[in-house]
Write a structure and sequence with these properties.
The protein has 345 residues and is of the alpha/beta class. It has 2 domains: 11-183, HUPs (Rossmann fold); 209-332, TPP-binding domain (Rossmann fold), CATH 3.40.50.1220. 27% of the residues lie in helices and 23% in strands. It has a 7-stranded parallel β-sheet with strand order 7-11-6-1-4-5-12, sandwiched between helices. The relative contact order is 0.11.
Length: 345
Amino acid sequence: MKTVEYRHGPVWVIAEQIEGRVRAVSFQLIGHARKLADGLGTPVEVILLGESLDQQAQQVIASGADRVYLGDDPELAVYQPDVYTEIIVKLAQERRPEIMLLGSTFMGRELAPLVAARLRTGLTAHCIDLVLNENKILEQKVPAYGGLISITCPQKRPQMATVAKGVFPRPELDTGRMGEVVLLKVQKNIPRRIETIEIVREEPEGVPLESAAIIVAGGAGASDLEGWHTIAGLAQVMNAALGSTRPAVDEGWTELETMIGQSGKMVSPDLYIGVGLSGELQHMVGIVGAKVMVAINSDAKSPVFEQVDYGIVDDCRRFIPVLIEKIGEYRSEGRELNHGNQDER
């Protein structure tokens, strides 16, 4: 087999799996890694650690990977930060990747800085876009200071970034695509500071934000808890996920898990309805590729109206109860709203 020499190191994705299934964010990153690798003229390589992941490794290849480093061992079934870090760092020192991408998940946000520190390189967290500049350096775009800024790591390698679910689309599977699976030999004596004793799962209430077709998001314009309950009522009657901005969380009206934006979740619904929010960048960057966007705000000069498809100028505390009533009348006539949940992406 002919050996191919590459000018740049490979583009890596550290895939994440739960109970033997690769998470959607990892597939999304593989799809974007494919674009970056094509721009660099280098392969896409994926690190996949877990147990009994042969079929998942083939899906990773079908999504755009050229090579999968598969660590298949019962000890890797559940994420272990010390063990995962040691495996990734050792392999990175051998393969010298140009770029390394991880999901901005609970695992990724812990694992990425551990790996970056060991490799003595930089790390940009919670990026909303990744592009190559004219010098083939990765520009890692994050929202800050009322706009977007680009962060680069021109000297150290790998260039590392974490990206939230929903920022990039999930690639179409090409089941005829060929790739290589390399089995990793897992070291058994890696010191561990953490041991998983028990896994407790909580079922989420309502419609999950990341997979919702319709999202109703509320902001400071709710004014008080009663106003917030009105917004939540709209989400309920529309079978929509309830989202929020930072002020709503800070006021204690809702939980942090509902926050959309730079410090929250990335969403891409068919319909987004923003209620009583101003359209600050820190929130709006979390809405990726929404098909239709609607804003309800009492201030006709609010910046949010410049970012949506339809705007309604009215006090949400007066308008929302009327809207809920009209939805009830619509349903009483035997008709139903066309909505639902999207497949996980």
